[in-house]
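User: Quick sanity check before I run a bigger batch. Here is a single chain. Can you write out its predicted 3D structure?
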Amino acid sequence: MTRRLGHALVWWSLAAAVGLLLGGATSFAQQHLPDGLRSFANSNSGWTLLAFAVVVVSTRWSSARPWWVAAGVGLVVFHALLQGYAIVSTLRGFPDSYGPGDFFFVVASLAGPVIGLAGLWWRSASGVRRAVGAAVFAAVMIGDGAWGLLRVVETTGWLYWVLSIAVGLGFLAWTASRLLAARRDRGLAVGLTIVGAALFAALFSAL
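Assistant: Done. Predicted structure follows.
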């Protein structure tokens, strides 16, 4: 048990370091990306994409695969992404803060473990778990893209939001066609993605 806890602490520390670096990079990206892509650097889908990728890479190693380790990686990296963004933005002369009481602190606390489990389950040999993992990621990408087109397209442009939807749809299609053998699992992935994306867009539109 002590050894497993030690491995977990190592992975969570790495997740914090990587998250801080990537989060800081998104602050620079917000300034230097083309206008149509700048929303990537300050969006739920952009940070979800980075967090999901970190979990998927981490879980290539068996020591990161216990569910509680992967969930912790998702939690830590999501918080670190937002903290890194706030720190670098402040150092660059654009004061920002991040901590308890902040709306996105709540988002990271709730979404981080879910993204961690989704990344782990996407690697699972179980078709059901892989379908659920793919659906979580795809739903956020599609739902956030839909929200952007509905609510902020006039100030941000449409390009990033369309690309976010395309990434979600492409990931779902690739997973369903290449990684899910059973029709039941494909249907589950598609159904959960539709429901999840709709709920995501509706919830953030209401806030």
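DSSP finds eight helices and no strands in the chain.

User: Great, the batch can go ahead then.
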